[in-house]
Amino acid sequence: SHAYVDGSCLYFTFAARPPAEERDTFYIDAWEAGTTSALGAGASLSHHHGVGLNRSRFLRDALGAGAHDVLQTLKDSLDPNGILNPGKLELNDPFGPPDWP
């Protein structure tokens, strides 16, 4: 749906009907499989829509540990109390981990 000089952005929609008691697990597992496969093939985690809580758990893998550590250092320096966007980007959160997954 989006074309860029260095690649494109493709959107996919998946449909399934797992039993009601398995919906949350199915949803998380589908995201895990799709995102892990895409990153393994060299895709980026996101483009202009951001990462959000769902995909933030993949950010360290997407950026690499060194880049993620730099991001954490910047966050710690600019927001020493950790009150801005807590639980985002798989960064340390004084309020505890996000309620996902």
Strand content: 5-15%
Mean pLDDT: 88
Global morphology: globular
Task: Summarize the helix and strand pattern as letters.
Answer: EEHHHH
The count of strands amounts to 2
- Provide the helix percentage: 40-55%
Structural class: mainly alpha
Distance between the termini: 28 Å
Task: Pick out its properties.
101 residues, mainly alpha, two-stranded antiparallel sheet
Topology diagram in text:
Layout: E1 2-4, E2 7-9, H1 23-40, H2 52-56, H3 59-63, H4 65-78
Antiparallel strand pairs: 1-2
Outline the structure in words.
There is one protein chain. This protein has 101 residues and is mainly alpha-helical. Helix content is 42%, strand content 6%. It has helices at 23-40, 52-56, 59-63, 65-78; strands spanning 2-4, 7-9. Strands 1-2 form a two-stranded antiparallel ribbon. It is globular, with a radius of gyration of 16 Å. The mean pLDDT is 88.
Summarize the structure in short.
By secondary structure, the protein is mainly alpha-helical.
